[in-house]
Automatic annotation (TrEMBL):
Residues 27-245 form the Aldehyde ferredoxin oxidoreductase N-terminal domain. InterPro entries: Ald_Fedxn_OxRdtase_N (IPR013983), OxRdtase_Ald_Fedxn_C (IPR001203), W-dependent_AOR (IPR051919). SMART domains: AFOR_N. It comes from Alkaliphilus flagellatus. This is Aldehyde ferredoxin oxidoreductase N-terminal domain-containing protein. Pfam families: AFOR_C (PF01314), AFOR_N (PF02730). PANTHER family: ALDEHYDE FERREDOXIN OXIDOREDUCTASE, TUNGSTEN-CONTAINING GLYCERALDEHYDE-3-PHOSPHATE:FERREDOXIN OXIDOREDUCTASE.
Length: 718
């Protein structure tokens, strides 16, 4: 079916024409608003206040969401929104990692705002089509496709005539339909979900980019928080944007030479150093699988352990040598020489509705290998790739799936659930077939898969109420917080990383702060004050990427040769200067390192207040499961007995020679929970928050986030 046939077989529900306009200093100065309940399309101005206080990307998403919902809004209410926004640097082609967009919504898992970053071509092409953001509200009565033609200046809402829902099929079909030729496919980008997004709370969004070398439509994911579930609840089958004419100066920067200079410098670093450092161009983020195992940080058997004797079977070298296509340029946006978007080509599927087909699998990323692999006790690289593929095409967040499956497996092995409850699935650790069948059930909306797809938070409640499970034990081993499943790092021995998970806005995702090596391995932040400073700076710095439309990886997955000699090597100061240069070069601002952090503080504190407005965001919501702090079971304690015994002796002066394991575990737990509370106090103080976790009026005024509606919320909690 081509585009003309698509039009002939579908109903045009609404069309809209607009003047193409011109991007100035990174901004189009307008947002495309669509209300699906009313089939309404309109242009909304981007104000100077928005650019000053919210910058773009995640900031714009949160601001539109704040104004679109009420404190009573649930994720499946029509007023909930999905906002996709790039940022003023999104789309530049001279500096690696500038193709990111941010997606915001009220999460089906947490009930509060979720943001998820994603690569692919959609964000940049949306901007070049004339829009700083796409804001979608309401619900359609029938499945629809939204099509934006950025060269003609048209937007259409079309009733979908297509049967496909799964991402690898639908993305390919729509790319074919809307492209005029093979060459034109690079000018088309598609956003889809998948069948499992309709039946679970952990649905993701797939963003396409066309790979002309493989002649395949590939996928990148906005994975966290269930935004794909919102997407399908709104009856959106797909979003499509088409724009022809990408070139290096479309953002109309103030000074392109500054951007060129910074880009050339980083390209040379990547070319010279990547193979010596992280091998991103060979394997992407999966380069750290064996590193995490070496340092006891690779989550294994539902975060009980930090490594396994079989990790060598899923080491990065295995994927490099046997599965991931080498010697082929990769990258999910033009100009990114880091090229970490790896793929396994012509992989034959062994299960499910696509059994026997040869497919291209994007991955595995580290999180996929750890979550789908070691955390579930699966050390089979082909099983990990198959799980990875089906998570993507069904639109299931691989992190949530891995963590919730590991939780289910531990519950199964502890007799909390059994074969009768699971419908015959033998969910022991390492049972690949059971894990795959659980995933296929999520796609079909059947069996135990539909229960598991509600997430760890809701399963804990169900297992207590229906099966008489011990609620305290489930709280300890259920690796979720605020309703969001943990990402795949073992934080037991890093207090700072415990805070990096627990003291986040959206839930335990490492994109705010990854401090394990600074804290546990290198001992660079020994005091509470040091940790609090790190838990201020790094979440703010990393927030900045999401405001401007940038990827984090070029910041610290390649570092200058002289970095170790700098004053603050963990911050990669030379790269920070690069970001300041490209920001000022595009926008005409004159920010420095201090103002960079201040820009993020405004949005970060706004999101905290947004959480409070929605019923979370206080100290009690920052509690974490004990397994993220220490050993829950005797088995865990015994696996590290020497370490724990030494800590009790050296830190607490406790004589362990005659005590039972249970007593030692109790003393250790009291100490570690106390440490977390003290860390929380220190972090709140550094962030300008009260002891309850509420930003103070004085702090909001100081950082310039003293909007009347924001102050109104916090005053009710002070």
């Amino acid at each position: 079916m081509d585009l003309n046939t698509l039009r002939e077989n579908s109903i045009l529900l609404k069309d809209f024409s607009y003047n193409l306009g011109k991007i100035e200093n990174g901004y189009t100065n307008r947002t495309l608003y669509i209300n699906l309940s009313e089939n309404k399309i309109e242009s909304k101005p981007v104000t100077q206040m928005m650019k000053d206080k919210f910058i773009g990307g995640k900031g714009f998403g949160l601001w539109y969401l704040w104004n679109g919902v009420t404190p009573e809004t649930k994720w499946n209410d029509p007023e909930n929104e999905i906002i996709i926004a790039g940022g003023p640097l999104c789309g530049i082609t001279q500096y690696p990692g500038a193709g990111k967009s941010l997606v915001c919504s009220i999460s089906p898992l947490t009930g509060i705002p979720i943001d998820s970053n994603v690569g692919g071509y959609f964000g940049p092409l949306l901007k070049f089509s004339g829009w700083d953001a796409l804001e979608i509200q309401g619900k359609s009565k029938k499945d629809i496709i939204v099509y934006i033609d950025g060269n003609k200046g048209t937007v259409e809402i079309i009733e979908s005539p297509l049967d496909a829902i799964d991402a690898h099929v639908l993305g390919e079909q729509l790319t074919e339909m809307f492209a005029d030729s093979e060459e034109d496919k690079r000018n088309v980008a598609v956003v889809t979900a998948g069948t499992a997004a309709e039946n679970t709370r952990i649905g993701l969004l797939n963003f396409t980019f066309y790979d002309p070398r493989r002649q395949a439509t590939r996928l990148k994911q906005a994975g966290r928080g269930g935004i794909g579930t919102v997407f399908r609840d709104k009856r959106i089958r797909a979003l499509v944007v088409k724009f022809k004419g990408v070139k290096g100066d479309l953002n109309n920067p103030v000074d392109k030479s500054i951007i060129n200079k910074a880009g050339v410098k980083l390209h040379k670093e990547i070319c010279r150093l990547d193979d010596k450092q992280n091998k991103m161009r060979k394997i992407g983020t999966a380069n750290i699988i064996e590193v995490m195992d070496k340092y006891d940080l690779l989550p294994t058997h539902n975060f009980k352990f930090g490594g396994h004797s079989d990790t060598y079977k899923i080491a990065s070298t295995v994927f490099i040598e046997k599965y991931i296509t080498q010697g082929m340029a990769d990258g999910c946006w033009y100009g990114c020489s880091m090229a970490c978007a790896k793929a396994a080509d012509k992989f034959e599927l062994k299960t499910g509705p696509y059994k026997g087909q040869l497919v291209t699998i994007d991955g595995p990323e580290y999180e996929n290998a750890a979550g789908l692999g070691s955390n579930c006790g699966i050390f089979d690289p082909e099983a990990i790739l198959e799980l990875n593929f089906y998570c993507d095409t069904y639109a299931v967040d691989t992190i949530s799936f891995g963590t919730l499956t590991a939780f289910v497996m531990e519950c199964y092995e502890n007799g909390i659930i059994n074969k009768e409850i699971t419908g015959g699935l033998e969910l022991n650790f390492g049972n690949t077939n059971a894990a795959l069948e659980l995933l296929h059930q999520m796609s079909r909306g059947e069996g135990f898969g539909k229960i598991a797809g509600q997430g760890v938070h809701r399963m804990k409640k169900l297992f207590v109420e229906e099966y008489g499970a011990d609620s305290n034990f489930l709280f300890d081993i259920g690796m979720e917080q605020k309703g969001l499943e943990y990402s795949e790092y073992l934080s037991k021995e890093s207090l700072a990383q415990q805070g990096g998970y627990g003291l986040t806005n959206k839930g335990p995702q490492h994109d705010e702060a990854w401090l394990i090596f600074m804290d546990m391995v290198n001992n660079q932040i020994p005091t509470f004050e040091d940790k609090a400073e790190a838990l201020h700076y790094f979440p703010m710095f990393r927030t900045w990427f999401g405001l401007y439309g940038l990827c984090k990886l070029p910041w610290n997955d390649i570092v200058p040769e002289s970095n170790a000699l700098s004053d603050e090597p963990a911050k990669i100061p030379e790269h920070v200067e690069n970001y300041i240069d490209i920001c000022n070069g595009v926008t005409g601002k004159n920010i420095n390192k201090t103002e960079m952090i201040r820009e993020s503080e405004r949005v970060y504190n706004f999101q905290r207040v947004f959480n409070i407005r929605m019923g979370k965001g206080l100290r009690e919501n920052d509690r974490v499961p004990y397994r993220s702090m220490g050993p829950v079971t005797k088995e865990e304690y015994i696996s590290r007995a020497e370490r724990y015994d030494n800590q009790l002796k050296e830190l607490l002066g406790y004589d362990v020679t005659r005590e039972s394991i249970e007593k030692k575990m109790k003393i250790l737990r009291e100490h570690r929970e106390d440490q977390y509370e003290k860390l929380t106090d220190a972090v709140y103080k550094r962030r300008g928050w009260t002891n309850k976790g509420v930003p103070t009026v004085e702090h909001l005024e100081e950082i310039g986030m003293d909007l009347p509606e924001v102050l109104e919320v916090v005053k009710g909690y002070l």
